[in-house]
Amino acid sequence: SQPRRIPSTSLPQGTAVSTDVERTLLRFPEVRTVVTNLGRPQEATESMALNQADVYVLFNPRREWQARSLDDLIVRMDSALSEIPGFDYEFSAPMRMRLDEVVSGVKTDLGVKIFGDSLPLLEAKAEALKEIVASVPGAEDVSVGVSAGAMLLEVDLDRTAIARYGLSVADVQEAVEMGVRGMPASQVVIGRRRYPIMVRLDAPFRSTPEAVAQILLRTPAGGTVTLSQVTRIRTVEGPEVINHEGSQRFVLVQANVRSRDLGGFAADVERAVRTRLTLPSGYYVTYGGQFESQQRATRRLGVIVPAVLLLIGGLLYASFGVLRHALVVMLNVPFALVGGVAALWVRGLHLNLSAAVGMIAVFGVAILNGLVLVSYVNQLRAAGHSLGEAIRDGAMVRLRPVLATATVASMGFLPMAISTSAGAEVQRPLATVVIGGLVSSTLLTLVVLPTVYAWVERRRMRLAESA
């Protein structure tokens, strides 16, 4: 998980919250170790703010788990962590989170970016958008990217007082810069390296607004005045970070999805945002995250699947030399789809990208079974058997090869279908589709396909006789 606190959180406060998170997670018997990486790494390879942390949870072996699945464990962890005040968080996996951030800049399943010019207006619209996204079924870990909350020390110059004491604005700026930030006074040379010597006030004299207000300035007349006599010093809340993309400001609302498919969730969010969120002219929203990757892959599959089916149809036509037989064998494609979708529904899984890849895999096996049956029926008819005998004998003789092909493939995918280890969220839908598609296509190949073949051939013979 990745907890985020308000930007003004101090290091001791952040450490205390991280300790509470670790103590809470270690109460679960499934958890072996919890390690927290607080703030920016030494090499600065990650764009992580100082108020963020990465909490890495290492699990015990699955046989020692009390939870039924990882999703069930995440729900329980979410409920426990929600009792700790002062931070937002989301659940992810280290590699997935980094890849998502590189690809789309969003570390969750869905990210909605609001673009515009005014930061206060963007923050207000982002809060409204957060409520909209949270109201959509399946939304979890909904949060707004932190942009405000950093505490700033504002020094407002009193130019009248500065002139009265004979000072200049540069004198005041130099005093503040030297006292708070520090200025180089000299250098230390060690061999070929040079190190600047910075001069600034000690921590007790620059850590609070009251201490800064007591910084002394020397006037041209030889007297001294405090900084509070020529400025107004106060603490204000300002932006911690201003995100830009395409030279425009944006605020990010991000969410994870559980218990439903990502595509349907994203579509519901888009409809809800379109109807319930009003944006002024020049402001607009875009969608990213895992949803963006899924859209790209879906578009590719929209080209690949028809191309695969056309290629298979062309090969079947080349094999039979007759279009009607190729089309009869192609009927196994919807036969496989029926079983694959039904198997997903029975197991409560979603039709995602891995399931779509499983559909392509089962198409090949289903069409192979149909090809075996129709080819043998054609051979029997060429040997002089009647249509009825050829279909009956062909179905009986090819029963074992068809069942063997489907059974071997199904047994091979069974471990993936019941897997609960790492990567099971990808394996289960694919294997479920393959097994369900093979069951339905095999049964329909042996029952419906011969019936359709007989109907097509009898219809062709009647047309030939009438001609």
Strand content: 15-25%
Number of strands: 13
Fraction of helical residues: 40-55%
Cα distance, first to last residue? 74 Å
Shape: elongated
| Low-confidence region ranges | none
> Which structural category fits the helices and strands?
alpha+beta
The gyration radius over C-alpha positions equals 34 Å
Which whole number gives the mean pLDDT? 80
- Listing every helix as H and every strand as E from the N terminus to the C terminus, the arrangement reads HEEHHEHEEHHEEHEEHEEEHEHHHHHHH
Number of contiguous helices: 16
Characterize the biggest β-sheet: 5 strands, antiparallel
What structural keywords apply?
five-stranded antiparallel β-sheet; 16 helices; 13 strands; 467 residues; two-stranded antiparallel ribbon
How would you describe the overall organization of this protein?
It is a single chain. The chain is of the alpha+beta class. It starts with 10 loop residues before the first helix and ends with a helix. The model has no long low-confidence stretch (mean pLDDT 80). The relative contact order is 0.09. The radius of gyration is 34 Å and the shape is elongated. Helices cover 55% and strands 18% of the residues. Helix 15 packs antiparallel against helix 16. Strands 3, 4, 11, 12 and 13 form a five-stranded antiparallel β-sheet that branches. Strands 1-2 form a two-stranded antiparallel sheet. It has a two-stranded antiparallel ribbon with strand order 5-10. The longest helix is centred in the C-terminal third of the chain and has 43 residues. A hairpin with a 2-residue loop joins strand 11 and strand 12. The protein contains 16 helices and 13 strands.
